[in-house]
Amino acid sequence: MKKLILLLSTIVPALIGFSQSAAETALLKGTISDAANRSKLAGASVRISGTTNGTVADLNGQFTLYCPPGNASVVISFLGYRDTTLQVTLQQNQVTTLSVSLSSGVAQLGNVLITGFLQGQAKALTQQKNADNIRNIISSDQIGRFPDPNAAEALQRVPGVNIERDQGEGRYVLIRGLAPQFTNININGEQIPSPEADVRFVALDAIPSDQLASIEVSKTLTPDMDGDAVGGSVNLITRTAQNKFTHINGSLAGGYNNLTGKPNVQGQLQFDQRFGAREKLGVMINGNYYHNHLASDNWEYAPSDNELELRDYELVRTRTGLSSTIDYKFNDRHEIYFRSIYSRFTDREWRRRYVFIPEDDEIEKLMKDRFEAQSIASFNLGGKHNFRKFYLNYEGQYSQGRQNTPYDHEVGFIAGMPSSFDVTGGKYPVLNAAGFNDNSNYEFDEVAYGHTLAKDRNITAKFEIGIPYKTGRSSGTIKFGGKTRFKKKSYTINSEAYGSDGGVPEANGFDEDPIKDNGTILGGRFNMGRPVNVASFNRFFNQNPGLFELDVESKSIDEALESFQAEENVYAAFLMARHQLKKVLLVGGLRYERTNVKYNSKDVVIDPAGDLQEIIPVSGSSNYDFLLPQVQARFELGKMTNLRASAAYSYARPNFSEIIPAQEINREDEVATIGNANLKPTKSLNLDLMLEHYFGNVGIVSAGIFHKKLDDFIYRRVLFNSPYPLTGTPIIPAIDVIQAQNGNDANLTGVELAFQRKLDFLPGFLNKFSLYTNYTYTHSKANLQSRTADPSKPNEIKSLRLPGQATHVGNIALAFESKKLLVRLAANFNGEYLSEIGGEPAEDLYVKSRMQLDLSASYVINPRFRLFAEGLNLTNQPFESYMGSKNVISQREFYSWWMRFGLKFDLHAKK
Amino acid sequence: MKSIQLLLCGLLLLSAWSCDKKNDDLVMPNTGDNFPQVIRFDDEGDGDLEDADEFSFKLVLNDRSDASGENPGGKITPLKEDVTVLFEVKEKEGFNNLASYIKGVKAFYEIDDCTTSEDQGIDLDVIFDAATGKGSVSFPKDVEEVEVVFETDEDFFNDNVLNKDERSITMIVTAVQTSGAEKVTFNNALEFKYEVLDDEGVHGDWELDHEDATEFARFKALFGKVNEDIAGLDADDVDKIEISIEYNEVKVVVELKEMEEIDECDGPEMVNKVIELEADLEDLSTLTDEGEIEFVGEVEQPDGSIKEFVYKGEFKITSAGIELVLKGEYDDEETDKITLLLKK
Question: Which of A159-173, A204-218, A478-492 has the highest mean pLDDT?
Fold first, then answer.
């Protein structure tokens, strides 16, 4: 760190001196919007004709460009619009402000105006085309058009992205076949903490897509971005007030879920306006609410225990979002902003299940009632200042993620009954268990009451200084900056399980009428009988506490094992240059990141007889540094064609669950599971090559290849007959230690293809169709400790594919768009992937490939009002997994289809 | 314009309100510190031979979490105030006149391993009305358990025949009276059953003639699998071998001639060294002179782990004593079916 400060303290004055010695500058600022609908054209290219000096408009269509004084010809380009050239006279040390309205390239588009969906595509593709790095954009117009209620669902449309789902809705994002922990998630350019206890990644189903102005997926990194992203970096950008007119937009929708037979409702409202004669103050407030009834029918099979489960889920899911942006422009050079976002996701879940255990002649009947609330709050205060010679951007952020489970109740009953089943058919189990749904057969077994709270808080401060320079006919910017982030993360658990010596009625003493489908699941194949009502049971529990006894030992173990407090402080600095040669843009530099981590947790020691022996407080710490060289190049092969290349180092920090020093020493089973506070992050060299050609009528065809070489790949290793502890004086001479460790390498290679364009070359009616398609192929090889390793050959290595890596991922959508009507049929394909590595190959868990078909349509009543309707998962595609072999299906979960329809409005009022 | 802004504010408030979702049909359980102290019988039952002059039950508190973390497996947290526990005879089998059998009642609690409240002259309030079968006992604060002892007429059941009917008393706790300063309740589902064990039946202490080389060899073959000390026994070292069949328990006791000094409450005492195997009765035919017997015990291994042993077979009472035919299973090995002859 000291070396870097020394380096910066030498370089920075030299750079400023270099800048001062360069020619005097003028500042050109402006806003670019659509001539017809005043929509801001994010990503528009602004270039001084005859030079390499240029920039790109931000999400609000605004740009800032340092130029030499004098007369200049400014060329403004935007995909699907005619290039516009303006003559301006730039005064030395003065700011010249432009307001540019572009007209769509009517001739190229065959009399189709760039409106609605096409304009959204144009914004996204223009930003992508003009970006310094390999990046995919989803614009707000696109977010609004696809039937995607949350940010994860919206991201599944991006090439190379696949998602993990929960109850049929997208939750985690996997980029280029790497597990979620390899992708960092940002809001407005800053990482947000994860509400979940043991991971760093964020469940994106907590963030309503309606809150976002844009989603950026950066697949290559520049030095001014956080370096802890191997797969990529997702940036969720909230909205900003754009003009002096009161602008209110929103939507109101209702829908229906076929499995629950219940409606869903959804609403969104946004207000934005700039105030004052010079529109100095901007205010944007956005609020939305989503309320849905979900359900799923599920069967699961555990081959190792030969147990079958029938599961019936019912959920009430809500999503609430509030965001605001207040910005103030002191003048043309200086502005400050305050952005806030609050998202709350809640799940009330009822899970009813039977567990068939033929070996013990037992059947369990369990009912769960759980409420979970995930919230993310982020407050960013920052400023942007354009000085005569350089610009300064800075920002402070306070953000917090919380996952609060105020109650998690599960009551279990057990029946001594024989059962048998056959799952070899793969589709549905054939079950033989007469009377299994008769509640009078079930005696009380155990009730578990839990509540947990996970908190993750970041305090971040960062700045960057950019110094424009000019060398001959080429120009560029030197940029440097620093950042600190202080993270505190904790997880507290309260877990109580109560048993009874008798006196508790059988399950029929607490049952209620079936909730859906007369108690049947999986298309009427299984009758789950009358479910146990947890509230009814709890009432009995409260009235008869004397009948119940707390399992104190389990409580102590459960509460100690996973709870922890952690602190992680990150210090980062970067130095980079962005240099535009004639047709070549070069971006390169170095990023340095230092991480200091401290953890407190508890060891749980189980004695040889299987009883709790001791709980010992422990603490751990580790520090690590990374120096990450990164270079990118964009070759403009033609006006519409780019060739991009990138070589960049990045890394991924371990999950908290792997690194906290919590441990369970089970001397009865002779297995110790221990954390590894010294676990090093995974380092990756990322190589990318991408060729992209854009169509003037708003479209793209692109092909790319990428390769990632991962060192210190983290995997779960078994250290056979190891002394415990691993260092110091052993208190146990030999025990199998399971620990996440570094040491093995992995490679991932992929090809990414995308094609989207309006099919205007087709005759007649057909030229109103558009095709949107992308496909990603990835291949990976990770060298891990072989599962056949044993004390005689502990270092035996086996190659496996990376968990989470799907060989095939793709999207295809066909859209019909006329002036008023848009109809779109979209298919999303997630290929099969390895989800969990088991103790042996037969225990590896694979998620089967899945293709979801969605249909959406919208009808423009007038420029202010639009009707829309959406249907999701039309073919009732299940989530399916298998264990070891494709013949051993371990889970099939069905969600059926759901839909919504409603009204969107977009109201502008003159002040 | 103002009306639009008012509409906007109203809708935003509505959306904020909507996120305050009610949790329908939710009943929160009284867990953690809200879960009351529970008083219950320590055991579901006990039993003694016909001529016993007393029987007793213990009332205990359920274990609770130890906030200090010193006892992660939990511990009894004594009450903060005295409470009164009401109990009554729910059922009696094999006799009618309770007052003829139960002659008195007393109660005490342990202060330490060698001292009881009785020793200290502390009188616990306890009453029992043999006419109604109802009684009560004080459960004082700062005490972990209370034992209620019923003095009985030792001749009441003592006969010389093998009874074919059960003789027992079943008691239940019916209420706990508190001042309300602390949440205290009781387990009303548990019953304490005292059974009179027939000394003409299988219960009692049965002695093996260790000087009979055949019997001694059989004994070693049967129990030597489980216990190395028994396997290595020499008959000359043995003073007595007894198998005691008690209420729900079997004890195999080998008393050696060798003496050792042990610390007792009254001071050091010289006693015979003892090899002891204890096991829980899983199955036992009672009220009969022949039937089945099965008992299960545990042996601690050198590394602290536990292994289970099982003995299963038949018994037959003869005029000479008892004939036990048992087969043992331990550590994946089985003994032969071995017959032992024992005398009372």
Answer: A478-492
Asked if residue A747 has pLDDT above 50, the reply is: yes
DSSP lists the bridge partners of residue B240 as B255
Residue A558 located in a structural domain: no
Query: CB of A46 within 8 A of CB of A54?
Result: yes
> Number of structural domains, chain A?
2
Q: CA nearest A529: which of A363, A371, A649, A650?
A: A363
- Which of A248, A291, A409 minimises the CB distance to B8? A248
pLDDT of residue B336: 93
Same domain, A269 and A351: yes
Domain assignment present for A556: no
Q: The CATH number of the domain where A8 resides is what?
A: 2.60.40.1120
Same domain, A87 and A105: yes
pLDDT above 50 for A634:
yes
Contact A560 B72 (CB under 8 A): yes
What domain range includes position A427?
236-545+563-909
Encode A677-732 in three state secondary structure.
Answer: CCCCCEEEEEEEEEEEEEECCCEEEEEEEEEEEEEEEEEEEEEEEEEECCCCCCCE
Beta strands in A231-361 (DSSP E): 232-238, 246-257, 262-275, 281-302, 307-329, 334-357
Instruction: List pLDDT tens digits, range A793-833.
Output: 777 888 888 888 889 999 999 999 888 898 999 999 989 99
Q: Of A235, A255, A272, which marks where a domain is finished?
A: A235
The predicted structure's pLDDT at residue B22: 57
Within 375-404 of A, beta carbons closer than 8 Å to B belong to none
pLDDT at A110: 42
- Of the CA atoms within 13 Å of residue B185, those in its CB half-sphere come to 17
Q: Tell whether B67 lies on the interface with A, counting CB pairs under 8 A.
A: no
- What average pLDDT does range A333-355 have in this prediction? 94
Which chain A residues are Cβ-neighbours of B15 within 8 angstroms? 267, 269, 287-289, 320, 322
Residues of chain A above pLDDT 90, percent:
49
pLDDT digits (tens, 9 = 90+) for A753-769: 999 988 988 998 898 89
Contact B28 A560 (CB under 8 A): no
Q: Which residues of chain A from 552 to 591 reach within 8 Å of chain B, CB to CB?
A: 552-553, 555-557, 560
- Tens digits of residue pLDDT in A840-864: 788 888 999 999 999 999 898 988 8
Give the single-character DSSP code of B69: S
CB contact under 8 A, B189 and A344: no
**Closest CA–CA distance from residue A614 to any residue of chain B (Å):** 7
For residues B255 and B271, what is the distance between their CA atoms, to the nearest angstrom?
A: 10
The pLDDT value recorded for residue B12 is 61
Whether A522 and A608 map to the same domain: the answer is yes
The tens digit of pLDDT for each residue in A450-477 reads 999 999 999 999 999 999 988 877 889 9
Interface test with B, best of A264, A323, A538 (most B CBs within 10 A): A538
How much is the pLDDT for A113? 45
Tell me whether residue A872 is in a domain: yes
| Chain A residue at shortest CA distance from B67 | A556
- CA nearest to A406 within chain B: B28
Q: Are residues A227 and A245 in the same domain?
A: no
Residue-level pLDDT at B200 = 92
Q: Are residues A377 and A355 in the same domain?
A: yes
Taking only Cα atoms into account, the Rg of chain A, rounded to an integer number of angstroms, comes to: 29
DSSP reduced 3-state for A879: strand
- The verdict on A611 and A535 lying in the same domain is yes
The alpha carbon torsion through B10, B15, B18, B20 (nearest 10 deg) reads -100
User: d(Cα A518, Cα A530) in Å, to the nearest integer?
Assistant: 9
Query: What is the CATH number for A464?
Result: 2.40.170.20
Domains of chain B: 32-197 (2.60.40.2030), 204-343 (no CATH)
Helices assigned H by DSSP within A508-618:
534-543, 552-561
- A241 lies in the same domain as A212: no
pLDDT for residue B137: 97
Which of A235, A250, A275 is where one domain is finished?
A235
